[in-house]
Design brief:
Helix content: under 10%
CATH topology of the largest domain: Jelly Rolls
Number of strands: 30
Mean pLDDT: 93
Shape: elongated
Distance between the termini: 13 Å
Number of helices: 1
């Protein structure tokens, strides 16, 4: 199946240019010390969030000093906000709803106003334009309670509780903090009149107020820049590589950690990096979260580390249901073997190793598949040759496969030491890429030239060619 996020593959009218990719393994976060107090009774936080890896607690936004904190986070996959002071909760709101979709962008709004007479109006959660009303925990603050957000004695954080724990793993975009106002989500988004899907709108005209900020992540040299003023954040362990062009208005493919049979892969870098297991018998591959059934598509996979159990890169159209189903052992799986150079349905190509980049060009209009190594297509392959398929593997039409889609994937054989490691570039690479090659629609940054009429795997291209 094809897995898409909150926003449709429809053009939204307003385009979000960038997001910021957080990796909990490298302790990524932003922080800011306030020059003065803001309104501690009334504020609004808004952000677009796409999760990657699940841990017990992941911070989105908050502040902390000693035993006093305020926190907007995912706790056991539930959305939670709290004010906490040395063992006592001044407030705590936690949803019954679980947030476990790694393909979706969630738009989250927390609207805080303790001057409200009705307790349930003092903290409001909205997700994708709709107010959350079902809570596992609902401790509302007392009237006129002074919360800890906007208190200048407490360092404020995005992506971590205090710079040492509970790091967020995933993507954030269009992060806004509004001082002095409790706003509803229509200040930040709207329902598409055709699809009914919640989408971003331009927020640059909002009044952000004292300590307010707008993080658009468009300046790769200053990722903590406040686009609405001068309330900039300090950047920690984040570099220009963490700036992504996968956004709520154009979602790029990643690997799918939910299709990880027997948990034999470990994921990082926004699900663009995977490490294979070292456990004997764990052989199943991992695939992309977006599949294709028609059109012409190009992706790249960088081999970070090969293993004694080979590196296998390719496409597949079958669900993995057993840990012994190694990549290439089932029908409708086509692979390029790094150690032997073997390519399913072709003569053997060159072997590849650490640092090499494997390109995959799949032509589902003519049912042909091409592999390249560092920009050179194997067996004199010509992805533009169409039905003649020069140098290509012939593949079964996607419509004839069990799921009706092909997915990009990687794996190895078994019991491998050292671990095999791959990093995938579906257009927004998790590594520094100087190639600067985009597809015909101007999307992506690839090491090699994208063959004519092939496109990278994102939702806008799927709307046009998928």
């Amino acid at each position: 199946m094809i897995i898409l996020g909150t926003n449709s593959i429809k053009d939204t009218g307003y385009d979000v240019a960038n997001s910021l990719r957080f990796n909990d393994g490298s302790s990524d976060y932003l922080n800011r010390t306030l020059a003065s107090d803001g309104n501690r009774q009334k504020w609004t936080w808004s952000g677009w969030v796409k999760r990657s890896v699940f841990t017990s607690s992941q911070m989105l936004f908050g502040c902390k000093s000693g035993n006093i904190s305020a926190s907007l986070n995912f706790k056991d996959n539930q959305l939670r906000f709290l004010d906490y002071d040395d063992g006592a909760f001044g407030s705590q709101l936690k949803t019954n709803r679980l947030f476990r979709d790694v393909s979706a962008w969630y738009h989250i709004v927390v609207a805080y106003d303790t001057t409200q007479g009705t307790a349930s109006n003092r903290i409001k959660f909205y997700v994708n334009g709709v107010q959350e009303t079902s809570f596992a925990t609902s401790t509302y603050p007392s009237v006129n309670f002074n919360g800890y957000i906007n208190e200048s004695d407490y360092t404020h954080y995005v992506g971590s509780e205090d710079g040492s724990q509970n790091f967020f793993d995933g993507y954030m975009a269009e992060v806004c903090f509004i001082n002095d106002q409790q706003l509803d989500p229509t200040s930040f988004g709207e329902f598409d009149e055709d699809s009914g899907i919640w989408k971003p709108i331009d927020v640059s005209g909002l009044t952000f107020g004292t300590n307010g900020f707008y993080l658009d992540f468009e300046d790769s040299s200053a990722l903590g820049n406040d686009a609405a003023g001068s309330n900039n954040f300090t950047v920690n362990n984040l570099t220009a590589v963490n700036q992504s062009i996968s956004t709520p208005t154009n979602i790029f493919a990643t690997l799918n950690p939910l299709n990880n049979f027997y948990s034999n892969h470990t994921f990082a870098e926004g699900n663009l990096k995977t490490l294979s297991s070292t456990t004997s018998g764990d052989q199943s591959p991992v695939f992309s979260n977006i599949g294709v059934s028609s059109g012409k598509w190009y992706v790249e996979c960088k081999v970070i580390q090969t293993s004694t159990a080979y590196s296998l890169i390719g496409i597949g159209a079958t669900q993995i249901t057993d840990d012994a189903q190694g990549f290439g052992t089932l029908s409708n799986q086509y692979i390029y073997n790094g150690e032997t150079g073997a390519i399913t349905g072709q003569s053997a190509g060159s072997t590849y190793t650490d640092g090499d980049i494997v390109g995959i060009a799949v032509d589902l209009d003519n049912n042909k598949l091409y592999f390249s190594k560092n920009g050179t297509f194997q067996n004199s392959g010509d992805p533009t040759s169409g039905a003649t398929g020069t140098g290509a593997s012939s593949i079964t039409a996607a419509s004839s496969t069990a799921l009706g889609f092909y997915f990009f994937g990687c794996g190895d054989i078994a019991d491998n030491s050292p671990q095999a490691i791959w990093e995938w570039n579906f257009g927004s690479p998790p590594y520094s890429e100087s190639g600067g090659n985009s597809d015909g629609n101007g999307y992506g940054n690839f090491a090699a030239s994208v063959p004519a009429n092939y496109f990278c795997l994102n939702t806008k291209n799927l709307a046009e060619y998928g």
